[in-house]
Write a structure and sequence with these properties.
Blueprint (H helix, E strand, L loop, with lengths): L2 E6 L7 H10 L1 E6 L11 H5 L5 E4 L3 E4 L2 E4 L2 H8 L3 E5 L3 H11 L6 E5 L4 H5 L4 H10 L5 E4 L2 H11 L6 E3 L6 H5 L2 H14 L6 E6 L8 H13 L4 E6 L5 H10 L6 E5 L3 H10 L2 E4 L8 H8 L3 E5 L12 E4 L4 H14 L22 H5 L6
Parallel strand pairs: 1-2, 1-6, 2-3, 6-7, 7-8, 8-9, 10-11, 10-13, 11-12, 13-14, 14-15
Antiparallel strand pairs: 4-5
């Protein structure tokens, strides 16, 4: 079994299943560079208890304009002595691994996870990232990307062969998310009762209230529509810097019964919101992937998904794509989407079929590319 050492920014709930799956293919160790995902408050003790491999944190180092370099990486590499090393993006961490190999201090195969959507590939917003990408890609032995579309972009643009690009979308284990159905239904019934959601068409959003998520524009665009529809309820689960704006928007437009802000949730308390929703929306203007789309589809929700999200590749007849920067497209697709939904009548997980599209990506064979030199 090959030994794989991953340097990863921080542990998030949507990464647990993927890491655990890798531990079945490799002798795996993961070193986290931050103690939590930026601008999130995930319960790290609970998350690490779900991991089926060795993990640790490397938190000492220097930072420069939001980028960090951690001391002690070489010692960890020497101690674990992996066959394969994996950094992330075009970070200082990845650059340091490349430097060590160029200086012949290490000789392992080196790669990096690139969480780009095809939109980000084609329209790099940062000049620094553009230069770093151009400089870095050909110095790596392999890349980990999120979709076939992005894989094709990197292979074509940088003349990489198929074995140098591994397609590995951020997908979670549906059985894990859907277990404890009795407890989920109990929590969901409490939500439905507390917020008077029965017989309503409940549209759910889960995420941070930040500009990239496009909440401001989305709410402004759909305002005339939801004013005239008594059965529509928009539930915004999360928190962030735009929460005050959303609060003001609700109060100014007297939408207290139409747009709900229940707060931020994790685990069963979060999944129960998927259980009472009738549909899901992700209106992001910028979204490398969007693991919440995967979660929504696991709980049987059709998704109104931004065309700019990497997870838009998961949408077929299980939802609609729209352009959140185009008011007419947003409103037209919103009307069609909401018309297709059935109001909340009963709360039963068994009646929520798995709606994940078969993306024909063989996780095991993709990662087994690293077994061959």
């Amino acid at each position: 079994m090959k030994k794989l050492l991953i340097f990863h920014p921080a542990l998030a709930p949507y990464r647990v299943d993927q890491f655990n799956a890798l531990s079945k293919l490799f002798d795996l160790e993961v070193v986290f560079i931050f103690n939590n995902v930026w601008n999130h408050k995930f319960d790290q003790v609970k998350l690490t208890s779900q991991l089926e491999f060795n993990s640790s944190y490397l938190l000492t180092g220097i930072s420069l304009k939001g980028r960090v370099f951690r001391f002690g990486m070489l010692n960890i590499i020497k101690k674990f002595n992996p066959d394969i090393l994996l950094g992330y993006e075009f970070s200082f961490t990845t650059q340091y691994l490349i430097l060590l190999k160029r200086l012949r201090i290490i000789k392992q195969k080196i790669g990096s996870t690139i969480d780009d959507s095809i939109e980000i590939c084609n329209n790099v917003q940062s000049k620094t990232r553009y230069i770093a990408r151009k400089k870095t890609v050909r110095q790596l032995d392999f890349l980990i990307v999120l979709s076939n579309e992005v894989a094709k972009y990197y292979k074509t643009t940088f003349d990489l062969n198929s074995d140098q690009v591994i397609v590995s979308p951020i997908l979670q284990n549906s059985d894990r998310l859907r277990k404890n159905s009795e407890k989920l239904e109990q929590i969901a019934n409490n939500y439905a009762s507390n917020y008077n959601l029965k017989k309503k068409k409940v549209l759910l959003f889960v995420g941070r209230f930040i500009p990239e998520k496009g909440l401001k524009e989305f709410l402004k665009n759909i305002l005339p529509i939801i004013h005239d529809k008594d059965e529509y309820v928009i539930v915004l689960v999360g928190e962030g810097i735009e929460k005050q704006y959303v609060d003001s928007f609700i109060n100014e437009n007297k939408l207290q019964s139409k747009i709900l802000l229940p707060g931020r949730f994790e685990g069963l308390e979060l999944y129960a919101w998927y259980l009472i929703a009738c549909g899901f929306v992700l209106p992001s203007k910028y979204e490398p992937f969007g693991a919440v789309v995967n979660e929504a589809l696991i709980f049987g929700l059709r998704v109104l998904c931004s065309q700019f999200a990497g997870s838009s590749g998961l949408i077929g007849d299980n939802g609609l794509l729209f352009n959140p920067l185009d008011k007419n497209d947003t409103t037209n697709k919103f009307i069609v989407f909401m018309d297709s939904l059935v109001p909340l009548l009963t709360i039963n997980l068994s009646e929520k079929p798995l709606l994940m599209k078969d993306n024909k990506i063989d996780f095991i064979n993709e990662w087994r590319k690293l077994y061959y030199d």
